[in-house]
């Protein structure tokens, strides 16, 4: 681990109303962050099926980020609460699969928090860099012909 | 891919890469990106253009759809929040279903945030385009849902912004429900003495508008009331309003005998505690509605008011009323609260008796105020002849967490300094400022006159300390940063020019309406320039200082702007809303009822042992789809297969 040139691939599921808009604001404010994130827009963090996250890891993601609205501010009342419940249970499953739970991050970011969005991605990218490539990806590559 | 069934027809995708001037093309290598896009699976053409959102860009899409038989369109440009609608319309005009379109956000999410890493930004842009193309291949046509819009609006907050919005809508023939939390409408403008820069008497220009509200046949005014619940969506909001009991019926003739009889005195909120009111009261003589209120926290129930009330308007049994209304649109105009100056301990507010805040000064200066317009020192009732104003109290101040400028304090301090000099030409008046911001129409001229003709001392510097001597005089220690001189100035009265903060209860309204607030705590508009009174919740608009500090002219303008925005869907009578609801595949459904349980909108019921969706109630949040164990529920335009395709594309080349 600790290969300085390792550039992780991170998949981000962002809710349209808060986290995605926060990412837009980081852009409009020209706040820089590392280019490792690939965003998939969903209407609410509650739409994020655990299978999306597992699929991302299975396809070789080194980290998955789920961004939603702050508690009480979900555009659909409480979709973020169900996202949180699901992700909490998913951590156990990830560990069983040998994926460190630090590789899955859930965070609330409002439409006004461009700065927070950029900082979050910066820190998360750094953390994944330190962890190195996802063990699942490494294992899958080994079995490939 | 072998073994996978081929869909009936291979999609024909057109990809358009926008330069956005240099905003994208200055960072991302767009010619390379275009070449790359042209080779992706399903792509029949890829083009680069300088401004895709401009007319020629849109025309290119329309023409290509026809000429090249495109069945999907992908635009790599700015955020979908900017131009998704623009390009969907272009597709529609070109004869393609608008939902067969996808954006790759390579500006906000790429070029603007990776400005120093051009090569990696280009690689990322390729990934984003590949992901959008992968989703586009699987897109399905959708039809917008049309819903009726009730021609009635709710306005929350009866300050000048809410009043203006309510009147404009009512004049256009819409019904308006105006909900105000306090016993009277008017807001802060009713408390202000005169208004800059014209020096009109504030209540003289406000009162006629308040009366118009009361008389307007289209306005239902609910004061002493708050919105407690909001359900539904644009066109069909259901609101529950809680109206507190005033214990006085509309039979009240405002004869004032009751207040004379009432033995209980408490500090008057309207006069910020500088005067007293009775337990039965009107906040100010021009209040609308002019109906007295018994404040049940201070009333001792002695019955004196009831004894003297000739029209028998007093009713101790009055109860809280819950009022339900259906409305099509909502305007939020809940205003601001002044910064609590006690948080700036060094200025001595709350500790030193001759330090007051600016709104208190307005009340002291107002002819209808507790002193009849005679400004006096709280400590001894003497007329101050040495008066100072400290600017930016609670504004532009990192220590208290308010980075913003409150936009009115420079002007109201100059205004009050001028008014004071007019009344007491012999007085010495100081303004301690960081810089003077006189940006409005006629404001700079107003400031110049104050400097040149009024002899007001403008001292550039933030006071470091404020002390009191044995005569209760105030000593201000300040460095004049223009002269580089440390000064100690003795004053009779010091006024703190307090800034604006979001009002109490801002969070409750935010949660009820699912709107956002900025880092300054004020409500967030949908776009800082182009959608300044809209929110991201369709059908909900903002007016006045609840959106950020502003003066009266700007609050009134925004009130009118919000009203005309709200009038658009109401006069059309119908809006199109996103058709992105859930859909149930009955064949896959095993009737486990999980979706029914997790749905927060009661949109799913079980019919014949299968999930059944009520589309009108479904908001498309996707919680059911994420919970369904057999993937029998899907969200239109955000199907599992579409998202899986994006995940695969993000992590693998074609
Ligand atoms: C000391 C001082 C002097 C000023 N002098 C001037 C001047 O000379 N010229 C000028 O142009 N501007 C001046 N201003 C600015 C002026 O006060 C504001 O621009 C104006 O009052 C804003 O109006 P508004 O309707 O947005 O808010 P507000 O006046 O605050 O009205 C908001 C209303 O909404 C109600 N409300 C709040 N929350 C709720 C809720 N949850 N439910 C129902 N109702 C609610 C409140 O009770 C209030 O009635 C001054 C400000 C200060 C502090
Ligand atoms: S809409 Fe943001 S979490 Fe639900």
Radius of gyration of chain B: 31 Å
Tell me the distance between the termini of chain B.
Answer: 11 Å
* Whole-angstrom Rg of chain A: 15 Å
Strand content of chain A: 15-25%
Please report which band the strand proportion of chain B falls in: under 5%, 5-15%, 15-25%, 25-35%, 35-45% or over 45%. Answer: 15-25%
Distance between the termini of chain A: 24 Å
In round numbers, the mean pLDDT of chain A is 94
Helix content of chain B: 25-40%
Number of E-state strands of chain B: 34
Number of strands of chain A: 4
Looking at the structure, what is the overall shape of chain A? globular
Strand ordering within the main sheet of chain A: 2-1-3-4
The helix/strand order of chain A is: EHEHEHEHH
Main pleated-sheet profile of chain A: 4 strands, parallel
Q: Which stretches of chain A are poorly predicted, pLDDT < 50 over at least 5 residues?
A: none
Number of helices of chain A: 5
């Amino acid at each position: 681990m600790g290969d300085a040139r390792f550039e992780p691939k991170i998949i981000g599921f962002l809710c349209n109303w808060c986290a995605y808009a926060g990412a837009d604001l980081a852009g409009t404010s020209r706040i820089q962050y590392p280019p490792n994130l690939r965003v998939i827009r969903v209407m609410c963090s509650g739409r994020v099926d655990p299978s999306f996250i597992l699929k991302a890891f299975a396809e070789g993601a080194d980290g998955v980020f789920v961004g939603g609205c702050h508690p009480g501010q979900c555009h659909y009342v409480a979709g973020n609460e169900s996202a949180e419940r699901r992700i909490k249970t998913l951590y156990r499953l990830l560990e069983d699969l040998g994926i460190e739970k630090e590789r899955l991050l859930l965070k609330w970011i409002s439409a006004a928090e461009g700065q927070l969005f950029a900082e979050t991605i910066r820190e998360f990218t750094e953390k994944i860099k330190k962890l190195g490539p996802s063990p699942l990806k490494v294992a899958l590559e080994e079995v490939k012909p | 891919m072998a073994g996978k069934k081929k869909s009936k027809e291979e999609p024909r995708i057109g990809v358009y890469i926008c330069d956005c001037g240099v905003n994208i093309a200055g960072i991302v290598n767009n010619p390379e990106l275009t070449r790359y896009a042209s080779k992706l699976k399903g792509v029949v053409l890829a083009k680069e253009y300088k401004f895709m959102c401009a007319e020629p860009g849109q025309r290119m899409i329309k023409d290509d759809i026809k000429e090249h038989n495109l069945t999907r369109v992908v635009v790599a440009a700015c955020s979908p929040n900017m131009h998704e609608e623009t390009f969907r319309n272009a597709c529609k005009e070109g004869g393609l279903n608008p939902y067969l379109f996808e954006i790759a956000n390579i500006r906000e999410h790429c070029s603007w945030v990776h400005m120093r890493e051009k090569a990696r930004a280009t690689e990322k842009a390729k990934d984003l385009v590949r992901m959008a193309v992968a989703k586009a291949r699987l897109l399905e046509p959708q039809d917008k849902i049309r819903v009726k819009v009730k021609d009635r609006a709710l306005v929350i907050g009866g300050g000048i912004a809410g009043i203006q919005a309510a009147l404009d809508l009512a004049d256009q023939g819409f019904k308006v429900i105006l909900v105000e939390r306090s016993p009277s409408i008017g807001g802060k403008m009713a408390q202000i003495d005169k208004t800059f820069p014209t020096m009109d008497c504030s209540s003289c220009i406000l009162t006629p508008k308040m009366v118009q509200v009361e008389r307007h046949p289209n306005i239902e005014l609910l004061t002493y009331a708050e919105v407690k619940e909001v359900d539904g969506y644009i066109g069909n909001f259901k609101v529950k309003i809680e109206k507190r009991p005033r214990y006085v019926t509309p039979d009240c003739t405002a004869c004032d005998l009751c207040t004379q009889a009432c033995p209980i005195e408490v500090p008057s909120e309207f006069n910020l505690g500088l005067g007293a009111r009775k337990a039965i009261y009107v906040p100010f003589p021009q209040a609308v509605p002019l109906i007295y209120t018994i404040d049940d926290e201070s009333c001792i129930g002695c019955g004196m008011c009831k004894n003297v009330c000739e029209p028998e308007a007093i009713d101790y049994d009055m109860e809280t009323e819950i009022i339900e209304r259906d409305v099509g649109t909502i305007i939020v105009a809940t205003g601001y609260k002044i910064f609590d100056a006690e948080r700036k301990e060094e200025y001595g507010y709350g500790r030193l008796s001759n330090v007051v805040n600016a709104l208190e000064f307005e009340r002291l200066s107002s002819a209808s105020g507790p002193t009849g317009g005679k400004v006096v020192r709280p400590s001894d009732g003497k007329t101050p002849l040495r008066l100072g104003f400290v600017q930016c109290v609670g504004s532009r101040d990192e220590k208290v967490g308010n980075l913003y400028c409150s936009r009115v304090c420079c002007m109201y301090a100059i205004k009050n300094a001028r008014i004071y000099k007019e009344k007491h030409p012999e007085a010495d008046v100081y303004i301690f400022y960081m810089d003077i911001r006189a940006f409005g129409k006629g404001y700079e001229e107003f400031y110049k006159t104050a400097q040149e003709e009024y002899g007001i001392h403008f001292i550039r510097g933030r006071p470091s300390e404020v002390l009191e001597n044995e005569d209760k005089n105030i000593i201000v220690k300040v460095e004049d940063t223009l002269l580089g001189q440390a000064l100690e100035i003795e004053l009779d009265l010091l006024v703190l020019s307090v800034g604006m903060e979001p009002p109490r209860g801002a969070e409750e309204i935010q949660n009820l309406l699912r709107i956002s607030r900025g880092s300054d705590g004020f409500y967030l508009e949908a776009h800082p320039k182009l959608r300044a009174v809209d929110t991201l919740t369709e059908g909900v608009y903002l007016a006045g200082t609840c959106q950020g500090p502003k003066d009266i002219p700007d609050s009134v303008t925004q009130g009118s702007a919000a009203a005309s925005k709200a009038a658009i869907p109401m006069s059309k009578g119908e809006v199109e809303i996103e058709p992105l609801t859930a859909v149930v595949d009955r064949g896959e459904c095993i009737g486990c009822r999980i979706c029914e349980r997790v749905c927060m909108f009661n949109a799913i019921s079980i019919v014949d042992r299968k999930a059944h969706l009520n589309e009108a109630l479904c908001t498309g949040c996707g919680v059911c789809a994420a919970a369904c164990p057999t993937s029998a529920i899907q969200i239109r335009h955000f199907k599992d297969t579409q998202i899986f395709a994006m995940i695969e594309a993000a992590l693998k080349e074609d």
